[in-house]
Structure formats: C-alpha cells, structure tokens
Amino acid sequence: MRTLLLATVLLATGASAQTTAAPATNSTDPGWLKVETLELGKRLHVNTKTHTHIDCLFGKADAESLTCGGVVFQKDQIQSIKPSHRTRSTFVGLGVGYGSAVATTAIAFAGGQDHNGFGSTSRCNSIGCATAIAFVDLTLIIATPIIFHVYDLTSTSIYKAP
User: For the segment 24-40, what is each residue's pLDDT rounded down to a tens digit?
Assistant: First the structure.
C-alpha cells in the first residue's frame, strides 16, 4: 500500500513539474530570457530609453515586447528591468542603520586621552552630548531602512539594453 501511495505522489509531482516548464522562446539574450520566464504578477521597475521609470506588475513577455501593468513596451524602448526587492532592501537598511548607530555610539563614548594622569575619559561626557548621540542614532535606525525601501537599493537588473 505504501509503495502504491509513494508511486502516486512521485507521479503527480513529476507531472506538475513538467507542466511548469519555461515557455519556448526565440530570444538569444540571456537577460531577456530571464524576463520572459518571470512569474506572473512579479513587481518590476522598468526604465525606458526616454528616461521614464515605471513600477508595474509583470504580465507577459515575448521576444519583442514586455507587458507590464497593462502597458506594452517594445524591447528596443527598454533601458533596464529590475525585479522589486523592497522587503529585502528594508531589512538591509535596518542592518546598515543599526550598525551605523552602534559605530557612532562607540566612537562618541570611546576613551580619549587624559592629560591629568587619571586614565582615559570619554569623548562624550555631558548630558547634551549623550542626547545628541541618541538623536543621531535614532535617526540612523529609522531613516536608513526607509531610504533603502523607497529607493529599493538592493534591487539588481535582470535586463539591460545592449
């Protein structure tokens, strides 16, 4: 009974893998091949040669055109195509902001040279200095992920015009 069940599952898995194969294409450009095999509904950033930037959802692509968000672009009009990675960009920005805040705090409170012979002292030894460092740290932790998210700084091009 187990053998029959296992054979059925393997057969069904193999059949579904065969139906999701990439469509046949005429394009020889490896970047454009990536565009043609994108999943339906993938969010893209499309830059055209007329310096138009459009964020849209992928519809379809063939050897000559891209349909994205109901707009049809001819391949020769497109400068570059990047898939959106805003969530990844936000988390990378959070890491960069947090790391910058830690570095700022470490530098501000690091020991300085004591000229009286009593050992090292902190560079930041007043409440005003500590408040300013806290403000800078908070700004870094909040602003950096927002900037990374808005500009999608970790997104890389899958297609660039020759």
Answer: 445 678 999 999 999 99
pTM for this predicted structure: 0.69
Give the integer Cα–Cα distance in Å for 143 and 45: 23
How far lies 24's CA from each of 20, 21, 62, 98, 149, in Å?
12, 9, 10, 46, 35
- Count the helix, strand and coil residues of the chain and give each as a percent rounded to the nearest 5: 50, 20, 30
Burial (CB count <10 Å: 0-12, 13-18, 19+), residue 105: middle
Least confident of 11-20, 65-74, 81-90: 11-20
Residue 157, CB half-sphere, CA atoms under 13 Å: how many?
A: 13
Domains of the chain and any CATH numbers? 2-84 (2.30.30.100), 87-151 (no CATH)
Structure tokens at 121: 């002292």
The C-alpha atoms of residue 103 and residue 141 are separated, in whole angstroms, by: 12
Burial track 22-58 (b if 16+ CB lie within 10 A, e otherwise): eeeeebebebbbbbbebeeeebbbbbeeeeeeeebeb
